[in-house]
Amino acid sequence: MGKELKEKKKDEVAVLGDEDKGYGDNLSNDDLLLPRVDLLQALSPVVVSGEKKPGQIINNITQEDLGSPSIIPIYLTKNWIRWKPRNEGGGIIWRSNDPTDPRVIEETKWVNNEKPLATAYFNFLCLVEGEDVPIVLSFSMTSYQAGRKLFTLTKMTPGPIYSCKYKLSAVSKTNNFGTFFVFDVTKEGPASEEDQAKASDLKKMFAGKELNFDSERTEKTSTNGLSDEF
User: Is the Cα dihedral 152, 213, 29, 103 positive or negative?
Assistant: First the structure.
């Protein structure tokens, strides 16, 4: 087995688990669907069904209630998505992580006080304190300012992005359309050496790659028009 193939296989096992779990050799990190932090709104399906409450922060894959978790950022990407309106069937028209993309330049502008056609996202790959599996924390629309705040806090903190932990919470907002929830973040202090080591290994594994997570569900469980804040 060549060196390149050995390194590839080692990378796959590091994420997918031990070889004795029975994973095939043709699987890679690209096949993983990363869990995402989900902030529930009144019209989120699990709230409508009565299983959860608005304002809860959950893991969208396991449905675990995360409370107000302490998170350690690992890696940050920014992308833009233009969604097809839900009343026209929904789905993605285009997505890009290139700020020089003509679609990004043109369709993220406010025109005549009309919201941009495309939505901007801050996507942080994170660890929940004490956990081993990374999770994506995505900020957009009404929570976009919280994403900018977390980005600013990490930039102002000496050391690598994963040197500190941050408290993630949900804050209720009300406007003419009703009540909805947005993320907020506050700096807590240094991350443990153990969590920093985990984060360092994961950053090496994911840096330079697009984070593969269920972004469409983000749009479907958003504030559903309760706010024009962008």
Answer: negative
Copy the structure tokens of residue 83. Answer: 């969604």
Residue 81 within a domain: yes
Total domain count, the chain: 1
Q: 20: helix, coil or strand?
A: helix
Q: Output the six-digit token pair for 11.
A: 């990378």
Radius of gyration of the chain (CA): 19
204: which residues sit within 8 A by CB, 6+ positions away?
A: none
Name which of 31, 32, 59, 29 is nearest 46 in CA terms: 59
Q: Quick one: tokens of 73?
A: 């950022």
Q: Which residue, 172, 170, 167, 161, is CA-closest to 185?
A: 167
The answer to whether the beta carbons of residues 212 and 33 sit under 8 Å apart is: yes
Any domain includes 99: yes
38-55 average pLDDT score: 92
Gap between the Cα atoms of 58 and 63, Å rounded = 6
**Structure tokens belonging to residue 71:** 């998170």
Reported as a single tens digit per residue, the pLDDT across 169-226 is 999 999 887 889 999 999 999 999 999 999 999 998 887 777 766 654 444 444 444 3
pLDDT for res 184: 96
Report which residue type is found at 12. E
With respect to residue 2, please indicate whether it lies within any of the assigned structural domains. Answer: no
